[in-house]
Specification:
Helices cover 37% and strands 17% of the residues. It is an alpha/beta fold. The chain binds one DNA strand through helix 9 and strand 15. Keywords: ATP-binding, Helicase, Hydrolase, Nucleotide-binding, RNA-binding.
DNA sequence: AAAAAAC
């Protein structure tokens, strides 16, 4: 009951309604609360229902935390091992944060209260004995705040040495996380540094640099590894190690080797290092591996894959008669209609595809920018900055931006190509699909995804995606009909 | 017939 009152006060804001970001906290008000009986079942029964029996945790110590004070948490399942009790934090004040950090949260970040995942995970992160944590939560639900706040809070401001390291899959994500960290930690005086590849022109080789003194380091695996082996990044004081997009960081075809190497090197030198693994996705294979990577006594938060889709983002599919028709759909339907709907990201499968689409749209008179990993570093930074500053409306991207990229004005995502497994092109890459969808609808905002489909393979891949996430993706009957597209945007709440 | 990082 207290929740309701609090939410009501939270909603008072001076911003005009149209601009006001929709928060998960608001979304929760509209959900039907979980039936009381469901949360009062015995623990054993609860464990079965939650599907934790196949998780590699100490059976004797297994314990389910239901967080009864947060009924809207019904779709995040918490499993703790050991006897440490955790209480969900309904307010940031419940977390013993410093005044400086609270100021960062309220004044700089303009947060009111923890989101679901923050309420559950932060006590787990911040309570001794600082157990490892594997945390899954919806796209745009505020995972970054969990680990950034975790790092800022656990760092001792008086120790002038690296104490927290965060590893991300792309330089864009590392930069973004560093920006969040600096904003949130503005009043704390805690120092930070980005360990990301630089253009050779304006960078000093690491061998000639002084050792890193920053208290928090956020970067990409290659550069972190390089700094460590060059003995410029000392890890003896590191007490918290974060993997953002952890499923990808520990996937066989991701950064598994680098990540394990870094983790082992740190844990060998720094004895009590807490490891945090965050992502919106953990497929079964990665999940099973990840559970073996963390220490025996750890905490877990997972979401069922059927519940991962974002309710606020409506998905559509449209069949086109030939591959080339996709350009026309983008141009004549989506871009012309989408002009005033916020920003758009168009995902393509290959760098070459990105370049071809870019040329076509520019020839047709559209202003678009394109980002791929092969661009020069400063060029990448410029394109991302322009998009984040709202100077560009439409961004073509490979999967370099599929994960984590946070731009609240993105309302439209176009899958120009569906994400597929590179070794089995008839198999969708479900995780990438979900991450791409998650670029729209940040923090519960409205959004739409258009999947452009050509041929039997696309149809099959799309069907598999629908089955996997138990979602029906509405078909737009006629790719040439402006009316159909308008109807779609209207039903997505964008028009 | 991939993208990412970085060698």
């Amino acid at each position: 009951m207290a929740e309701t009152v609090e939410n009501a006060t939270v909603k008072v804001e001076s911003k005009p309604v149209a601009e006001q970001p929709k928060r998960w906290a608001d979304e929760a008000d509209e959900e039907t609360p979980e039936e009381p009986s469901a949360s009062s079942t015995s623990e054993d029964k609860g464990a079965e229902e939650l599907g934790v029996e196949n998780l590699a945790i100490d059976e004797e110590k297994k314990k389910i935390n239901k967080f009864l004070d947060e009924p809207e948490d019904s779709n995040i399942k918490a499993v703790t091992t050991g006897d440490t009790p955790y209480t969900s934090a309904s307010r940031f004040e419940d977390l013993n944060l410093s005044e400086e950090l609270l100021k960062g949260l309220y004044v700089e970040m303009k947060f009111h209260k923890p989101s679901k995942i923050q309420a559950i995970s932060l006590p787990m992160i911040l309570t001794p004995p600082y157990k490892d944590l594997i945390a899954q939560a919806h796209n745009g639900s505020g995972k970054t705040t969990c680990f950034v706040l975790g790092m800022l809070s656990r760092v001792d401001p008086n120790v002038k040495a690296p104490q927290a390291i965060c590893i991300c899959p792309t330089r864009e994500l590392a930069i973004q996380n560093l920006e969040v960290l600096r904003k949130m930690g503005k009043h704390t005086g805690i120092t930070s540094e980005g360990a990301i590849p630089m253009d050779s022109t304006n960078s000093i080789p690491i061998s000639k640099r002084a050792p890193i003194m920053a208290q928090i380091v956020i970067g990409t695996p290659g550069t972190i590894k390089k700094w460590m082996s060059a003995k410029k990044l000392g890890v003896s004081s590191v007490k918290i190690l974060v993997f953002d997009e952890a499923d990808h960081m520990l996937a066989e075809d991701g950064f598994k080797d680098d990540s394990l190497r870094i983790m082992k090197d740190i844990e060998r030198i720094s004895s009590h290092c807490q490891v945090l693994l965050f992502s919106a996705t953990f497929n079964e294979i990665v999940k099973n591996f990840v559970l073996r990577v963390v220490k025996r006594d750890h905490n877990q938060l997972f979401v069922k894959k059927e519940e991962l889709k974002l309710e606020s983002v409506k998905q559509f599919k449209v069949y086109v008669p030939e591959e080339l028709s996709k350009v026309l759909v983008v141009k004549e339907r989506i871009l012309e209609l989408g002009e005033n709907l916020g920003q758009t990201i168009i995902f393509v499968r290959t760098r070459n595809g990105a370049s071809l689409l870019h040329k076509s749209l520019v020839e047709l008179g559209y202003e678009v920018t394109t980002i791929v990993g092969s661009l020069r570093q400063e060029e990448r930074d410029k394109i991302v900055k322009e998009f984040k500053d709202g100077l560009t409306q439409v961004l073509i991207s490979t999967d370099v931006l599929a994960r984590g990229f946070d731009q609240q004005q993105v309302n439209l995502v176009i899958n120009y190509d569906l994400p597929i497994k590179h070794d089995r092109p008839s198999e969708p890459d479900y995780e990438v699909y979900l991450h791409r969808v998650g670029r729209a609808g940040r923090f519960g905002r409205k959004g739409a995804v258009f999947n452009l489909l050509f041929g039997d393979r696309d149809q099959m891949v799309m069907e598999k995606i629908e089955t996997h996430f138990s979602v029906t993706v509405e078909e737009i009957p006629d790719w040439k009909s402006e009316k159909d597209f308008k109807g779609a945007l209207r039903s997505a709440g964008l028009l």
